[in-house]
Amino acid sequence: MVGLIGSGNNGGDGLYAMAALAKRGVRCTAVLLGERTHPEALEDFNRAGGRSAYAMQLPGLLEDCDLLIDAVYGTGVRPGAVLPEIPQNIPVLACDLPSGVDADTGAVVPTVIAADRTVSFGALKTGLVVGSGHLVSGHIKVIDIGLRETLPAPEAWVAQGEDVELLLNRTSDWHVPGQHKYQRGVLGLFAGSPRYPGAAVLAARAAVSTGLGLLRTVVPDSVAPAMSGAVPESVPLSSQELTALLAHSRRNDREGAKRIGAWAVGPGLEDTPDNRETLAQILASESPCVYDAGALVMLEPGANPQPRILTPHAGELRSLLAKAGVRVDAADIADDPVRWARWAAVAYDCVILLKGSATICTAPDGYTLIVHSSTPDLATAGSGDVLTGLLGTLLAATSFPAKESETNLMHRLTDIAAAGALIHAHAGALAALEGTLSAVDLLRALPRAARDLGL
Ligand SMILES: NC(=O)C1=CN([C@@H]2O[C@H](COP(=O)(O)OP(=O)(O)OC[C@H]3O[C@@H](n4cnc5c(N)ncnc54)[C@H](O)[C@@H]3O)[C@@H](O)[C@H]2O)[C@@H](O)CC1
């Protein structure tokens, strides 16, 4: 076993770990990379029979290495760190976090040492589960080292499959299925264009296959035949009907509100004057809404009484922020996705679900849930459309108390966004078991994924 040992406490942790292994008879060599080495840990390691080596000996040592322990840098890494290259065939176990990962943001240096496993001490660091850090952390295990009482409140929470029931607060909100179709929610879907008819169909199929009561669709004439063919459950909504219905719900008419409980807007949508007009009507409707893809282009920053979830990927987030006067590039977002998602949540007064290697769901007050279980295969065309339909169903099936505080409402939306991301990720994992993953494979797996997670 070879350990890469840095000059700080992370190096000390690596030496103590290797000392314990050396005592069990494992042949351990510590490559000392810093100008100094944690003195007590080095003494313990030497006493246990470990050997030390210099950086120049590393290539030879790696030829006969079953496991590399990476303890060069932990939370103390500063920008500009340069790390040795490790051949891909050598399994790497990182102490606390892979060397070169920023513990708070997930930013990595170009020479970051990718780990197969990371053993993190005391608490899960945000940088392990978001951005580029998430891609190099491998399997993560958090070890309790008795710090719990002294740790500050977490700045973000990781949501997992078993949390879905809690996130959806099903006991109080979800109606008994099968009684009445409106009780399982009515969703309006405004999506599609002659250029992107499939996006609307994917979102619609996702919505109905997660147990929606009724789907009303607002799609261009050219998309309508494909929609009724692929999603016979959907009921088209003419523009006159739409205007009348939205006027009803603006006056808080109970019947109108019942007819469309939530909206899903954007998959395949084009930026046209007519679409902008419809979008403005939906924005004014005050029914909760998920906005994706083409709809994001048409949104403006600022407060809006409508409860909203926006679901950008990094490029769309950059455009949203630019409209709000915040100039960032793709690299800035990759280096600190939580920070920029929060900026957008504030600028647009909504919940942001930022898609990426991990999904970040965040409210304007900073309440943040991270879903990092997604398979990389989910970055497939149409996968976002499926997520939009699924989130629409979750919104339509949730009853939001009329007198909910702004903060509670935003937290509820964040919980729903994370629940959607978890179901989506689980569907992706199920579909990936069958081989390559297309959006249609994802759709097929959706009912089973929803059932597995208690929907
Ligand atoms: N702080 C705590 O409460 C605990 C810390 N622990 C361990 O301590 C680690 C943090 O220890 P440290 O604060 O000593 O930090 P690190 O051990 O991560 O690294 C700090 C050392 O690396 C050097 N360094 C950092 N960036 C550099 C760069 N770009 N170029 C050259 N040198 C650079 C610093 O000068 C310093 O000597 C954690 O990751 C964890 O492994 C744990 O043992 C548990 C408790």
Automatic annotation (TrEMBL):
Top-rank taxon: Bacteria
Keyword NADP set for record: yes
EC numbers on record: 4.2.1.136
Chain sites annotated for binding AMP: K355, G356, S357, A358, T359, G384
Coiled-coil regions listed: none
Textual note on the cofactor: Binds 1 potassium ion per subunit.
Domain YjeF C-terminal: 165-453
Keywords of this entry: ATP-binding, Isomerase, Lyase, Metal-binding, Multifunctional enzyme, NAD, NADP, Nucleotide-binding, Potassium
Cofactor or coenzyme needed: Mg(2+); K(+)
Catalytic activity line of the entry: (6R)-NADHX = (6S)-NADHX; (6S)-NADHX + ADP = AMP + phosphate + NADH + H(+); (6S)-NADPHX + ADP = AMP + phosphate + NADPH + H(+); (6R)-NADPHX = (6S)-NADPHX
SUPFAM superfamilies in the cross-refs: Ribokinase-like, YjeF N-terminal domain-like
Root EC class: lyase
Binding residue positions for (6S)-NADPHX: A199, G268, H313, D385
Keyword Cytoplasm: no
InterPro entries on file: Carbohydrate_kinase_pred_CS (IPR017953), CARKD (IPR000631), Nnr (IPR030677), Ribokinase-like (IPR029056), YjeF_N_dom (IPR004443), YjeF_N_dom_sf (IPR036652)
Subunit structure, as described in the record: Homotetramer.
Alphabetized HAMAP family for the sequence: NADHX_dehydratase
Protein family: Belongs to the NnrD/CARKD family. In the C-terminal section; belongs to the NnrD/CARKD family.
Listed NCBIfam families: yjeF_cterm
Physiological role: Bifunctional enzyme that catalyzes the epimerization of the S- and R-forms of NAD(P)HX and the dehydration of the S-form of NAD(P)HX at the expense of ADP, which is converted to AMP. This allows the repair of both epimers of NAD(P)HX, a damaged form of NAD(P)H that is a result of enzymatic or heat-dependent hydration. Catalyzes the dehydration of the S-form of NAD(P)HX at the expense of ADP, which is converted to AMP. Together with NAD(P)HX epimerase, which catalyzes the epimerization of the S- and R-forms, the enzyme allows the repair of both epimers of NAD(P)HX, a damaged form of NAD(P)H that is a result of enzymatic or heat-dependent hydration.
Protein known as: ADP-dependent (S)-NAD(P)H-hydrate dehydratase
Gene: nnrD
